[in-house]
Amino acid sequence: MRISKNNVASFLCGGVVCLTACISMGSNDVGKLVESRPVVSSMTLSPDIPASVPFCGKLIDITRYDMREAYDRELSSFTYFHSTTMLLIKRANRYFPVIEPILKANGIPDDFKYLAVIESHLDPRVSSPARAVGMWQLLEGTAKEYGLTITPTVDERCHVEKATEAACHYLKAAYRKYGDWAAVAASYNGGMGRISGELVKQDADSSLDLWLVEETTRYIYRIMAIKQIFKNPSKYGFVLRARDLYKPIATVDVVVNQDIQNLAAFAKEHGVTYADLKRFNPWLRDRKLVTGGKTYKLSIPQEKDMYYKTPNTEVYDSAWIVSER
User: Fold this and answer.
1) Residue 320 covered by a domain
2) pTM of the model
3) What is the domain range of residue 63?
4) Residue 324 pLDDT level (bands cut at 50, 70, 90)
5) Quick one: which of 156, 204, 215, 207 has its CA closest to 178?
6) Which of 6, 29, 53, 299 has its CA 20 to 30 A from that of 201?
């Protein structure tokens, strides 16, 4: 989107018109205006709510009162949760290029990348009070079931690529069970057992008709709402330039099949700090690596990409930015 001189001129003209109207008022009218004026200097506008919302290639009608109000709650929350929502868009520029191809290769709709957004805020190291870990917030049992390694020195739930693959396995299994992507999303939060049980107990045909705990009820609407903002950030007040987005940082993989007793020394040997080694390999849980006979790849960031000496120019989705011309 381009911020043009015409747009600026229109805004200024509007202000002049409003000022002129105020001046033309009688003294009584001006007095009433002063008495009723807001006590804050900003304006909070309720975002428009559409009649239907696209999700995984299907239009979901949300005109029913509970669905419309649920979507309104999430869209309003993300719209005015300014700093967090803005950071999500910045981080997506680094992580969506990693996540999207894996979803596509596994036949998972692209919209599920927004599930990772709401689950973890695109933080590969985050953990929840329920001990769900990583960008896809996988529980230990589920992670191991879908092939991830978890040991005292390794937690592949924090490995973005491998965790995304594991999440895809879950999503495919859920779709085989339900044949409906909205139900799949609900099950990712509530569990397949709970969703299946409630569909039977409540004699319902759709997960969107179920009475569930608040977190699970909100889940699908949170995904759809954050997608709406990502598709047109400036419409919701998020004005970013290419240089504001977090750039992808190139790495070189070092193959390791033997234990590393001192990761700090290993990092130094490869020209990076221990902190950078941990940031680019968040699946490392300890100061050492015990391979247990397995082979791992440690990502070493390239120094030339580690500094913002020149503005970022890599933009994964042009809809995220405005033109600076």
Assistant:
1) no
2) 0.86
3) 52-244
4) confident
5) 207
6) 53
| One domain, residues 203 and 144 | yes
Q: Are 253 and 298 in contact (CB under 8 A)?
A: yes
**Cα pseudo-dihedral 106, 110, 111, 112, rounded to 10:** 30
Element at 8 (helix H, strand E): helix 5-24
Q: Do 265 and 231 belong together in one domain?
A: no
Residues with Cβ within 8 Å of 245's Cβ and at least 6 positions away in sequence, in order, are 89, 90, 93, 312, 314, 315, 316, 320, 321
For residue 66, give the CATH number of its domain.
1.10.530.10
Report residue 289: phi and psi, to 5°: -125, 120
| Averaged pLDDT of the chain | 91
**Rounded Cα–Cα distance for residues 196 and 239 (Å):** 42
What is the residue whose two structure tokens read 């900003």? 42
Helix H or strand E segment including 18: helix 5-24
Map residue 133 onto helix, strand or coil: strand
Q: What string of DSSP letters covers 287-305? A: SSB--TT--EEEEEE-GGG
Contact in structure between 300 and 252 (CB atoms under 8 Å): yes
